[in-house]
Structures are given as C-alpha cells and as structure tokens.
Design a protein that fits this description.
Cro/C1-type_HTH, Lambda_DNA-bd_dom_sf, 72% helix, single chain, DNA binding, mainly alpha
Length: 113
Amino acid sequence: MPDPIDAAVGREVAKHRKRSGYTQAQIGDFLGLTFQQIQKYEKGVNRISAGKLMRLANLFGVRVEVFFATVNTPEEEKEISRQEAKELANYYMMLSPKMQKEMTRFVKALANE
C-alpha cells in the first residue's frame, strides 16, 4: 500500500502535469525515465526524489511546495477527525430515538470489524 504522503505528492504531480498539457511519456523523457515509472510516481507506489520534484516544479512553473499542498500534518489529521466527529454527532442528534439506537448498533458493528 502506498505511503499516504507519497500518494498525495503523486496526485499533485499528476494534476500539474495534466494542467500543463504533458503526457506521462513526455515527463518520463524529461526526467530520463519510462512512462511506467511516472505512473508509479503519480500513484504513490514509488517515491519521487527531491531533485526530480525540483525539476518538475521548474518545468511546471510552480514552487516545489505545491506538491505538498494536500499533505496533512498529524495535527491537521486530528483536527479533521474532530470536525468529522462533531458533524456526525450533529446528524446523530437529528435522528429519532429508534434510529439513534440502530445507528449506534451499526457503528459498533463497523468498529468491531
């Protein structure tokens, strides 16, 4: 399974590649790689080196930090989880008492899997 950070960076590379109108083969040629290697980078299966990220940033005309734009820090992940929990609790409170019991039973079953 790909590392979540490598996958997020790969998605950003793919987004900027497509936005710039390049194919995976063209990026592969630019970096001296095969298009299959670019596919693996974009899926997060393989890690992209700092040097290659810098070259891609220059090619796309962006700062290298943009490739990390969707990477969440552990603290941000906790905050996202807290926000989602609050949202779930608000929806739960909108349910009838009977549906609340059913939902509780459902969530417990999911948690035990």
